[in-house]
Amino acid sequence: MSLVLSARMSERIHAHLCRAYPDEGCGVLLGRDGEGRREVVEIVAVENRREESRHNRYLIAPEQFLFADRAARGAGLDVIGFFHSHPDHPARPSAFDLEHAWPYYSYLIVGVTRGQAGEGRSWRLAEDRSRFEEETVEVRDTHSEPSGGPDRTTSGGDRA
Hints:
- By secondary structure, the chain is of the alpha/beta class.
- The chain is about 20% helix and about 40% strand.
C-alpha cells in the first residue's frame, strides 16, 4: 500500500505542523482510496484540542472530524486518514498512537525537530490491531497535483 500526495500538499502539511511546534499539530487527509494506493487530494488542518500533554499528544474533536467528513463528501472525496507531528521525536507511531488508532485509516506522522519538518512516514493499523504496518509515501511533483479547490478557513478547521 502507498499514500500518494503532491509536493504542494506535503508542504502545506509541513507548514501547519511547524506552526504547531513545540506542540503536536494535526489534521485530516481527504482523498481517494484505490487499488494498492490512496491519493491525498486535500487536507483539513485543525487545531490540536488536547487540553494537557499537547507536546506529545493530539486530539481531533468530534466537530472537527465532522467538518472534515462533510468537506470530503462535498468534494466527492473520502476521509482517508489523519496526519500529526512528533515534536523532537521520530516519525514512528507511539504506544499511545496504537492504542487510539482506528482501522482503515492512514496515519501520516511527520517528525518536527526544533521547528523544522523532517521525515514523513505513513502507517495503517494491522487487522488484528496489534501493530502498525508502514505504507510507502509517494510525493509527486506539484505540477501533477489535482485541483482541490480554493483555500479557505472555517471554524471547523483550516481547509489548507
